[in-house]
Amino acid sequence: MGWTLSLATSGRALPAMAAGQTTGRHPDGLPGHRQGILAACGRHPPDQTEQRAPETDKTNGNTGLMISYLTLPEAASAAHKTRHNEAGFTLLEIMVAMVVLTMIISTAFGALRLAERSWEAGLKHAGETERLRTVSAVLQRSFSQILALSWSENTKTHIAFSGDQKQLRFIAPAPQHHGATGLFEYTLVVAPHAGSNRLMLYYRLHDPDHIGFAADGSDRQQVLLVDELKTASFAYYGSPVTGDPAQWHAQWNTDAEAFPRLVHMRIVSPPEQGQWPDLFLALHTELSK
């Protein structure tokens, strides 16, 4: 509901309105209540170059001035919008924006951390694969070069190979990285260390004048093949006695009549390191007494 106030004069024309004041009709032909909206919002229409003459009331010939106002609810709403625009963001809006920003940052850091873990896992897997390849290559080379040597003691012949579930011994040429010539005695052993186990390879120069393997001593050199093992074991496939069917054995002694055909090495690592595949190492010896 609008309110309209009419001011009339008796036969006298009202003076022209000053620039920026409201009349019954806007200088641009807009209704007067549009100017009321501008006034309620604290804005004023631009200055006009010419003024329109007041309209004449055709019923009684008097010149009248029509002033229109907005309804009270419309004026209150316009004023509220003006104050809201001037006040900026509310506390609730700021809190919502902070929550959204926090979620975005958390998601970004989570993605970065996931990428970092994937990269670390890839490097670890690559390192374990390279270590497995290296150890397997060293053992395959060493076992393929085992020499079918033997010696006699008290009318008994002994082969230059012995082993059980935790260690084995054999004679082969010098290690590839050593640079020396001659034959070396090797001992591959599962050794306890700091609550876990290690796969160690010991070697020393072989003395051809000595009968049997040399006693363990400080003169031998060592190579760490695998560290932090849960356990490891060896098994031997072949026929210790000539004519017997070949089968797997937990132990192979120097008094056997032949070398084993295969050596099975089983390595068990902690769960966080991943499992090693079983290694089957072939011996290229066919010695029988």
Domain count: the total is: 2
Fraction of residues in β-strands: 25-35%
Number of strands: 13
End-to-end span in angstroms?
A: 125 Å
The major beta sheet can be summarized as: 5 strands, antiparallel
Strand order of the largest sheet: 5-6-7-8-9
Envelope shape = elongated
H/E series: EHEHHEEEEEEEEEEE
- Sheet/helix structural class: alpha+beta
Helical segment count: 3
Radius of gyration: 51 Å
Q: On the 0-100 scale, what is the average pLDDT?
A: 74
Spans where pLDDT lies below 50 across 5 or more residues: 1-30, 48-70
Helix residue percentage:
25-40%
Q: What secondary-structure arrangement, pairings included, does this model have?
A:
Elements: E1 3-8, H1 32-40, E2 64-69, H2 72-87, H3 91-144, E3 150-153, E4 156-159, E5 161-163, E6 167-173, E7 183-193, E8 196-205, E9 221-229, E10 231-238, E11 247-249, E12 262-268, E13 279-282
Antiparallel strand pairs: 1-2, 3-4, 5-6, 6-7, 7-8, 8-9, 10-11, 10-12, 12-13
List keywords for this structure.
28% strand, 289 residues, five-stranded antiparallel β-sheet, single chain, 27% helix, four-stranded antiparallel β-sheet
